[in-house]
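Input (structure):
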């Protein structure tokens, strides 16, 4: 009995994908963590700068910090966190930029690879003070430092290639092969979602460290979680929550993290910051 040529092709695709993925190992220059990423630091910076205008356009465009006080405050608080925290030691230090987006409805904040960080006016207007703003921006800085976007790109490429291999090798029947590939792709998406939620918790941890180092009370992150929780109650979930752990889960994790950071209580010199309005 001869070998099934489709199966041979599938095996070759799968082996090639796995070898390529594990050949992308790098050591994170800040955390020391072993990671599998398919971009260099310079490529992350270039990709983020290239993608920033298009991403901003989808949410109403960037508010000019030269003429708008809110946009200037976003840039100033973000810069203050980077300048006064361990984020300053990262290779992204000079490439961090912080932007306010015009969209008044979307409740969102996100970071592109390399240090381009955005917050929508929809989220900004729900915050009370610069401490809460620092919590949001610190969280996004954590994503950049931990190279989460580059990790997801590598994992996504691996998962897509393995799903293709399953589809090729599953059967000569076109429909069955399609269904097998679709199931494999769904499993890949669920795998990515799991890591997304883990990344959010990791970014909360790093963001709280950074905001505290910059002089902000990390308890302000609790209020940020309350804002996201309340936004999700109206039937329209905050965009920022689409791949994040539920706010109640994060609230508990943040409370636990604050206790670990300051077992004797949060120092009095850490402040909630200025009122935003």
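Output (sequence):
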């Amino acid at each position: 009995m001869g070998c099934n040529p489709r199966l041979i092709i599938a095996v070759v695709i799968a082996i090639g994908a796995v070898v390529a993925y594990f050949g992308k190992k790098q050591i994170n220059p800040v955390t020391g963590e072993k990671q599998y990423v398919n971009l260099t630091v310079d490529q992350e910076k270039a990709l983020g700068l290239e993608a920033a205008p298009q991403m901003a356009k989808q949410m109403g465009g960037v508010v000019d910090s030269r003429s708008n006080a809110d946009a200037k405050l976003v840039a100033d608080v973000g810069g203050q966190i980077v300048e006064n925290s361990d984020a300053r030691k990262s290779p992204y230090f000079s490439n961090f930029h912080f932007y306010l987006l015009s969209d008044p409805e979307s409740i969102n904040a996100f970071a592109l690879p390399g240090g381009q960080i955005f917050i929508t006016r929809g989220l900004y207007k729900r915050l009370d003070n610069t401490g809460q703003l620092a919590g949001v921006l610190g969280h996004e800085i954590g994503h950049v430092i931990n190279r989460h976007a580059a990790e997801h790109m590598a994992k996504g490429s691996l998962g897509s290639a393995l799903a293709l291999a399953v589809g090729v090798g599953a059967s000569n029947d076109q429909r069955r092969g399609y269904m097998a590939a679709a199931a494999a792709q769904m499993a890949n998406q669920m795998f990515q979602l799991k890591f997304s939620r883990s990344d959010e918790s990791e970014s909360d941890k790093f963001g709280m460290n950074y905001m505290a180092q910059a002089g902000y009370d990390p308890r302000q992150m609790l209020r940020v979680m309350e804002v996201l929780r309340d936004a999700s109650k109206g039937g329209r979930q905050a965009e920022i929550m689409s791949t994040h752990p539920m706010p109640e889960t994060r609230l508990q994790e943040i409370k636990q993290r604050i206790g670990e950071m300051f077992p004797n209580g949060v120092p009095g010199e850490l402040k909630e910051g200025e009122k935003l309005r």
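Notes: The first strand starts at residue 25 and ends at 27. The two ends are 77 Å apart (CA to CA).
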